[in-house]
Design a protein that fits this description.
Elements lengths: L8 H11 L24 H4 L1 H4 L10 E2 L4 H11 L11 E2 L7 E8 H18 L5 E5 L5 H11 L3 E4 L8 H14 L4 H7 L9 H14 L3 H9 L8 H20 L2 H11 L2 H8 L2 H22 L4 H14 L8 E5 L8 E6 L16 H15 L2 E15 L2 E7 L4 H4 L6 E3 L23 H9 L8 H6 L21 E4 L3 E9 L6 E6 L3 E6 L6 E2 L1
Parallel strand pairs: 1-2, 3-8, 3-10, 4-6, 4-7, 5-6, 7-8
Antiparallel strand pairs: 8-9, 11-12, 11-15, 12-13, 13-14
Length: 533
């Protein structure tokens, strides 16, 4: 029996019955690759095999023909932190090989751009190389897909659909398009009974027939039914749907795009449906929807319109297929089992992502996450690169970016096996005190200085003139009422806001500014480029 580490209790009992008193059974397994506990797999079955079948001979296969010794040693050092193991000492036939690489990026976009750039370089040197971008959750694929498209690097996505082709993403964007264009029959039919509203096939057929006879869109047919022109139909759920769309149309005209998407997810009941079911698949769908909102926020920040974003998403969905051997494979860690690649990029190595937030605080969960990382690392034949982002956008307030801690698994890799890539913000395993609410008004140079603790750079004269210090008011002492509070200021990215907090003195003075619909932002005043409104 192969893959014995993934056996569940029912399979085990069946095996015992089949083996009978002669116990004539042979199993093959690796306790360090047991990654399906959520599917019922129980690694303890493998660990106790010698006890259950005391006459069995245990043969350890410790020669590795896939990876280099450095990759094997690094992965082994991580999984060695799991307490329940049979243990093994792997020897690589391919020799020592190069050190692992590590890159800490400023944010998710910078992480994706670094990975895409490295992949482009590898494939330019040899287009026959096989490369993989591994990630813990399917929602992480979006940033890498977009970065690879921008560079013209071919890829394929394993274990799911391309981000903008996933059902939950298409469902949500159908609501958006219908709010913009009620005459869009395709979008209307997609969401009319999603989540279920009690609108059956008979009602839909009647709507179609009315629209055909009258030569009108389905939306007009719904209005006709609700108004009472067609009595005897399922009017109540149609009226509820009509009221929902009116509410979304109003939200579309008053809210920022990211906030509008929140409204769609909540008012439609779509997100609530996923939360109530709460299966692993539904959790992944919720993560994809959160990533969709982040994508919209990034698009708006880049100066695109909501319509631009929707058009680009539609084009991606239609043009995402290609023929021929792909240069890059995008794949979740769970899907990598049994595969191998010349070059592997293991991304998102942050607490809350890898290990996943649902496993933190549970010993068995962390152990399985550690095995998952071991599997991901040992997929690499020639090179292994580990990456993480310092900041990621916060779902619910996409203008805010939350700082993360490096994954605990990074600290478990011996530092002598890793080289930090030029441009990385930190060494592997290094934990810095990143600010929980980063001031994105920093220039890249100032951000690096603050992260690395270098000498302060003088602020450009133009920025000094535009900062709140030109207001001519000193910082208030503790207990005083600061005269800056309540002032209206203008920021080049966030627009007009109100100062709601002041901290510190002189060059280190910080101001907190509340921007309508965009939340509260904290700035170093001499770098903030704020002007009195």
């Amino acid at each position: 029996m192969d893959e014995y580490q993934d056996t569940n209790r029912v399979q085990y009992e069946l095996l015992r019955l089949l083996a009978g008193p002669k116990q004539n059974v042979c199993v093959v397994g690796d306790e360090d690759q047991s990654i399906y506990r959520w599917r019922g797999a129980d690694v303890s079955i493998l660990l106790k095999f010698a006890q259950d079948f005391p006459r069995a001979s245990v043969i350890k296969l410790e020669r590795n023909y896939r990876s280099t010794q450095n990759i094997v040693d690094a992965a082994g050092a991580v999984v060695a932190n799991n307490p329940d193991r049979l243990g093994k000492s792997l020897s690589a036939e391919k020799g020592e090989g190069a050190n692992l690489k590590y890159f800490e990026a400023r944010d998710a976009q910078a992480e994706a751009e670094f990975v895409a750039g490295e992949l482009g370089r590898i494939l330019n040197d040899d287009s026959q190389q096989t490369c993989a971008v591994e990630y813990r959750t399917v929602a992480q694929s979006r940033a890498f897909e977009e970065a690879l498209r921008r560079r013209g690097v071919r890829y394929r996505l394993v274990g799911g659909f391309s981000f903008y082709k996933r059902a939950e993403v298409r469902d949500t964007l159908a609501y958006v398009r219908l709010a913009m264009h009620p005459e869009d029959d395709i979008s209307l039919l997609r969401v009319l009974n999603l989540p279920p509203r009690g609108i059956g096939k008979t009602t839909v057929d009647a709507l179609r027939e009315t629209a055909r006879v009258d030569g009108t869109p389905l939306w007009t047919a719904i209005e006709k039914f609700v108004s009472g022109a067609s009595p005897g139909r399922a009017v109540t759920p149609l009226r509820a749907f009509q009221e929902l769309m009116h509410k979304l149309q109003e939200a579309l005209s008053t809210k920022e795009p990211a906030a509008f998407l929140h409204c769609v997810l909540e008012e439609s009941g779509y997100m609530g449906l996923l939360k109530d079911r709460n299966t692993p698949e539904d959790v992944a769908r919720m993560e994809n929807l959160e990533e969709l909102v982040r994508a919209v926020a990034e698009s708006m920040e880049a100066g695109e319109t909501f319509t631009d974003f929707l058009d680009a998403a539609a084009l991606v969905s239609d043009a995402d297929q290609f023929e021929g051997k792909p240069g890059v494979t995008l794949i979740t860690l769970h899907s990598t089992k049994g595969l191998e690649f010349d070059h592997v990029f293991l991304t998102g190595m942050e607490e809350g992502i890898c290990p996943h937030s649902r496993s933190i605080g549970e010993d068995k969960g962390i152990e399985e996450e550690r095995r998952l990382v071991y599997v991901g690392m040992t997929r690499a034949r020639q090179s292994l690169t580990l990456t993480r982002a310092v900041y990621r956008r916060v779902f619910g307030n996409e203008q805010q970016l939350r700082a993360s801690r490096p994954s605990r698994f990074l600290e478990e890799i011996p530092s002598e096996l890793v080289e930090t890539v030029r441009g990385s913000l930190a060494e592997i395993g290094e934990t810095r005190r990143y600010e929980p609410d980063p001031e994105y008004s920093y220039s890249p140079e100032e951000f690096l200085r603050r992260v690395r603790g270098g000498p302060k750079q003088p602020a450009p004269a133009s920025r000094r003139q535009a900062s709140p210090s030109s207001f001519g008011r000193p910082a208030a002492k503790r207990g005083d009422s600061n005269p800056m509070l309540g002032r209206k200021v203008r920021h080049p990215s966030y627009g007009v806001g109100t100062i709601v907090g002041v901290e510190g003195d002189d060059e280190d003075r910080r101001v907190s500014v509340s921007f309508p619909g965009r939340g509260t932002k904290k700035f170093i005043e001499r770098y903030a480029q704020l002007e009195q409104a």
